[in-house]
Amino acid sequence: xxxxxxxxxxPMSTPHRPLGIAHISVGHFAVGQAAGWYLRLLGTLxxxxxxxxxxxMIEVSAVVGGGASPGSTRYSFDxxxxxxxxxxxPGLSVQAVDSAAFVTxxxxxxxxxxxxxxxxxxxxxxxxxxxxxxxxxxxxxxxxNSAVSLQFDRDYDTFGLLWGSVDDYNFLDFYSGSTLLGTxxxxxxxxxxxxxxxxxxxxxxxxxxxxxRFDRVVARSTHHAFEFDNVSVxxxxxxxxxxLLLGGLGVLGWLRLPRRMG
Length: 262
Ligand SMILES: [Ca+2]
Ligand SMILES: [Ca+2]
What we know:
The protein is mainly beta. Helices cover about 15% and strands about 35% of the residues. The protein has one domain (about 25-255): Jelly Rolls (Sandwich), CATH 2.60.120.
């Protein structure tokens, strides 16, 4: 696939502009970038969300065969027994509610195992090895028709998960404390979110926040089910803007100090 196949009106740089509604963006993918660009095109959204008066932007990508962001902390849940409804993992507490649980395999009408392809399992195997492609044979999480809460010990701005059989009634809520930062839906990551259980129904989804960080993620579903695995988190924002802001405030305070003393 070459750059000639791209429609001519596509923006060439990431449009970090204020947006009132979800907006399709392809700006951060280079023209001519190889395989998968079209899926990325379809699955990439930018949305502006008001967060305590601060404009926060979230960027969502969804790629069949995609993988976790490099340098992420990874959670495969493979040490958790099927049937468990809670788990304490390093840096993460998982709590499943009502019909949600850690599961393996598929149960007709209740949950279906995600199908791994490409880089979906890269780094999630024992000792950081790669998991095999194919129907997920490991422990994963199903929300049932309820919810799973992922409470992290610290704040992150980048989240990833392997989202299987994506349904339009699946929701992913991001919180900072009790403040809801934003929600990503099944329709945000797949145009035909109809619970497909084949390879094209599973995507690796990346969510990047600009300007805020989350410490809790809730996967919920109004029907059976939201199935996911291979969660990844990291901080990609180096905090430079925050440091500059605080530094600027510090300078202002220092400039004001002599006046007060005088
Ligand atoms: Ca797993
Ligand atoms: Ca599903």
